[in-house]
Amino acid sequence: MRVGIVGKTDNNGEVSSLAATLLKKFRSRKVDVILDEKFNDLVKHNNFAPLEEFHNKVDLIMVLGGDGTFLGVSRVIAGTDVPIVGINMGGLGFLTEVTRDEAVKLSDLIISRKYEIEKRDMISATVLRKNRVLSSHDVLNDVVINRGIGSRIVDLSITIDSNQITTFKADGLILSTPTGSTAYSLSAGGPIVFPTLPLMIVTPICPHTLTNRPLVISNSRIIEVKLYHDTSGLQVTLDGQINVDLVNGDVIKVTKSKKAVNFIKSPFRDYFSILKTKLMWGERYGTI
Length: 288
Prior knowledge:
Elements: E1 2-7, H1 14-28, E2 32-36, E3 48-49, E4 60-65, H2 67-77, E5 84-88, E6 98-99, H3 103-111, E7 117-129, E8 132-139, E9 142-146, E10 154-160, E11 163-170, E12 172-176, H4 184-187, E13 199-205, E14 215-218, E15 223-228, E16 235-238, E17 242-245, E18 251-264, H5 271-278
Parallel strand pairs: 1-2, 1-4, 2-3, 4-5, 5-6
Antiparallel strand pairs: 7-8, 7-18, 9-12, 9-16, 10-11, 10-15, 12-13, 13-14, 15-18, 16-17
């Protein structure tokens, strides 16, 4: 077995400490470990490679960091058979399901190959300008159209399978996968969707019309968002990490991606237990 380890490089030392512990554990069980070369500066190891080459070198990847680190890695290895698991070294962490205290226990299960894999669909976002492709990316969480700082209402025309649905007057729009339903979409009032369902979520951000509400549709559909009127400062942001500036008349086309990401499921709790823990369902915030 060959295990790849990727870590958040700007951590305060906890990531490198955990990586060293895992390295020692895997070595004691004769398991080969390959570090991401960017991470190798923090954790000295004689076997490292660029993340882009991991799909040819490892059987699975452990990501030590927060959801942002996990998203970045997932886009690189998407479409390969290499599964990925996140160890939460950040804050809330919906994607990094395993706690740092559980990481060593997980390594034992990995060595014994006692883990389950769950496929998570991605969506593909293509920006078209005058019918030419300006940008195209596959994302795991969401596609967000807004102005960011100094946001003003924008008109966004939505078509699904070439049928014009409505024009949202809103601060922006979120197009999300089920995996991303617990991210920005949830903050904007979108539904929580079980992560393996074949769906996409359309969530307006602070809609001017109160009857504009989130839509949940099959991910076999084709969504097109066209920009009208004043689009100054408007951007599309992919997984919160990639930004593309937009101009009037641009079209953002969103479809199911041909790629997917294989998650190693947390062996310590199921999805609903994770929701209860992360969202603190059932907690009392004080008494009257």
